[in-house]
Amino acid sequence: MVTTTVLDRSARYTERELLVLFEIGSDTIDSASSFVGYMCDAYGISESSLWYVLNGLKRKGLLDFASRENPRRGLALTPIGLRSLREVEPVRRGTIQTFSQAPAGRWSGSRGSRQYAIAMARA
User: Fold this and answer.
1) Which residue has the higher pLDDT, 85 or 109?
2) Is the CB of residue 45 less than 8 Å from the CB of residue 5?
């Protein structure tokens, strides 16, 4: 868990949330669905876990993507999300390496914590 302060608000991010922030970056992605597909393939995270993270970051005001009201909106960080991204930049390399080195499937499901992956790797 990483804690940062943006706009005088303290925020905590899970490793998955950080990975999503880093992967979106300052880009606008055509659709959240295509992003979820990419992340599943690249990191072996389940679709449901990724949708949970995306919706949580949207509720926090860090990103936005299409909805029934605005079906053509691409996936992108909000201004607050971009400031948060700059604040957590120092942990980018470590976060991406952690996910990249985990065997496929180690980050899926409800037990997708780093501790679980480490414990499974030792088993």
Assistant:
1) 85
2) no
Predicted confidence at residue 79, as pLDDT, reads 95
Domain count, the chain: 1
Amino acid at 62: L
- Domain encompassing residue 113: 2-122
Residue 39: both structure tokens together: 């992340």
Torsion angles phi and psi, residue 38, rounded to 5: -60, -45
Which residues have C-beta within 8 Å of that of residue 75, sequence separation ≥ 6?
A: 24, 28, 29, 30, 31, 32, 35, 54, 63, 64, 65, 66
Q: What is the pLDDT of residue 9?
A: 53
Q: What is the CATH number of the domain that holds 94?
A: 1.10.10.10
DSSP string covering the chain: -EEEEETTEEEEE-HHHHHHHHHHTT--BS-HHHHHHHHHHHH---HHHHHHHHHHHHHTTSEE---SS-TTPPBEE-HHHHHHHHHHGGGHHHHHHHHHHSPTTTT-STT-SHHHHHHHHH-
